[in-house]
């Protein structure tokens, strides 16, 4: 099985695995340097649009991305050629980071506006709504404070504490990094589905065969649902996954129109 690994897939696997080991055991500071931060964060650097896709949160994060590359990458490399597979992986990875950053700017600006509106008109009911919408960032003490604030809406100390709480969440939101090659992998998935749509894939959970086009369609719809749902408890960058699907689809569509470019 491992003898069928193609050169680009093999090199990408090695780079990601080596960096995971190095950042996990030798130079943990690489996780902060290479992760992709919100553009307004003090930790943001332009090179992170490239480096974030080679850093993973934990073993299972790495395993899932590399397993997908290992399964779908070799056939794509044989069909497209090494150069185009590498272009697909890198463009989808970097492009996902860029599009996700734009989406993150929109989310941060929206939350900043919410905080400013509350500070201009401190209202316990509005504070409670913000806490519920961002419950993943709060501990139990904040919910106890909501009750106290509701009973004392004019108390200057309660208003100050509420403002401090929201400013702290704003700071936390602005410094949550994104890592992983999922955007690049989703580009590979859509490419595989577009080029080999009727290829039968056997799932482990549930154990059943499914055509590639239906599997990717399910992933796409599931990703769109999660983007729209925007669950504050979910720390997966679903918009980056959706971006990978979109960019990969556009690339393969262009390549399929210009068949003379295949080699």
TrEMBL record:
GO terms for cellular component: membrane. The keyword Ribonucleoprotein does not apply. The keyword Calcium does not apply. Residues 47-103, 170-253 form the Peptidase S54 rhomboid domain. InterPro entries: Peptidase_S54_rhomboid_dom (IPR022764), Rhomboid-like_sf (IPR035952), Rhomboid_protease_S54 (IPR050925). Its main location: membrane. GO terms for molecular function: serine-type endopeptidase activity. The chain crosses the membrane at residues 12-30, 50-73, 85-103, 184-205, 212-229, 235-253. Coiled coil: none annotated. Keywords: Hydrolase, Membrane, Transmembrane, Transmembrane helix. It is found in: Membrane. Belongs to the peptidase S54 family. This is Rhomboid family protein. It comes from Algoriphagus faecimaris.
